[in-house]
Amino acid sequence: MSHLLSRPQHHQACTQDISPASANWEYVGFQSYELKAGENLELSSQDKEMCLVLVAGKADIRSQQEEWLNIGERMSPFEQKAPYAVYLPPADKASIVAQTDLELAVCIAPGTGQYPARLITPDDCQFEKRGSGTNTRYVCNILFGNLPAESLLVVEVITPSGNWSSYPPHKHDTDNIPSETHLEETYYHRLNPSQGFVFQRVYTDDRSIDETMSVEDKCVVMVPEGYHPVGVPHGYESYYLNVMAGPKREWIFHNDPDHEWILEQ
C-alpha cells in the first residue's frame, strides 16, 4: 500500500488520525470521528487552530467561551447542502455531543490565536461550479477565501459519476509567490454508494513521487507535493474534504504544462 494512503480504522470513534509527524511534513493535521447519537467527544486545540466540519449529522458543540446547540442539517455529505462547521483557535477546548449519528472531520494547522472561536453556517460557505463536460465538479468553500483563518484552508468537492476533479493536474508545492504557493494537502474521500472507489494519482515532475491509488470510502490521501488528480468511475459519486496549510495562507497553483491545453477546449 502506498505511504500516501491511509485506510480508515473501523470499529472505533477515531477513524483517521493524520499528524505532521505521521505524514512526515510540517503543517497539516486531520482527524475523522464517528459518534453514535448521545456519545460525546472532547478535543483540545493546544497550539493549533482547528476547523470542526460536520460531514453528516447534528451535534451540540461547546468551546471554552461559546456554545452552539443542535447544529447541522445534512445527514449525508451527498445531500448538496453546505455543512455547519466550528472554528476553534489555539489554547481552546471543544466538547461535542452527538444529537444524531455524527461524522465529524477535524482540520488542524498552526495558529497563534488571532481569531476567536466561531460558528460557520451554510450561509457563510461559498458554492462554485468548476470545469465543463466530464471535468465538471461542485466546490463548497468552508474556510477559504470566504472567511479568515491563520493557516487553514478547508474546502469540499462533489464530483459526479464518470468525471474528473483536481484536473487538469495541478500542484502547489513551491513557495514562489505570486506564481505558486507551498501547501500540504489531505483528501478525505467518501463514495456514494459506499462500496465504490476512485483513483487518485500523486506525481512530481521528476517522478520522484509517482503513485496511483485505488481509494475507497473514508480513506485519506496525503499530498506532500506534486500533482494530484482524481478520477471517478461510472456509477459512483465522489465527495472529498480538502485540508491545506503552508507557510502562507494563499492557494496559488500551477497546472501540469503537459495537460494545460485541456483548458483551451
UniProtKB/TrEMBL annotation:
<dbReference type="GO" id="GO:0102482">
    <property type="term" value="F:5-deoxy-D-glucuronate isomerase activity"/>
</dbReference>
<dbReference type="Pfam" id="PF04962">
    <property type="entry name" value="KduI"/>
</dbReference>
<dbReference type="InterPro" id="IPR024203">
    <property type="entry name" value="Deoxy-glucuronate_isom_IolB"/>
</dbReference>
<dbReference type="InterPro" id="IPR011051">
    <property type="entry name" value="RmlC_Cupin_sf"/>
</dbReference>
<dbReference type="InterPro" id="IPR014710">
    <property type="entry name" value="RmlC-like_jellyroll"/>
</dbReference>
<protein>
    <submittedName>
        <fullName>5-deoxy-glucuronate isomerase</fullName>
        <ecNumber>5.3.1.30</ecNumber>
    </submittedName>
</protein>
<dbReference type="GO" id="GO:0019310">
    <property type="term" value="P:inositol catabolic process"/>
</dbReference>
<dbReference type="GO" id="GO:0008880">
    <property type="term" value="F:glucuronate isomerase activity"/>
</dbReference>
<keyword id="KW-0413">Isomerase</keyword>
<dbReference type="InterPro" id="IPR021120">
    <property type="entry name" value="KduI/IolB_isomerase"/>
</dbReference>
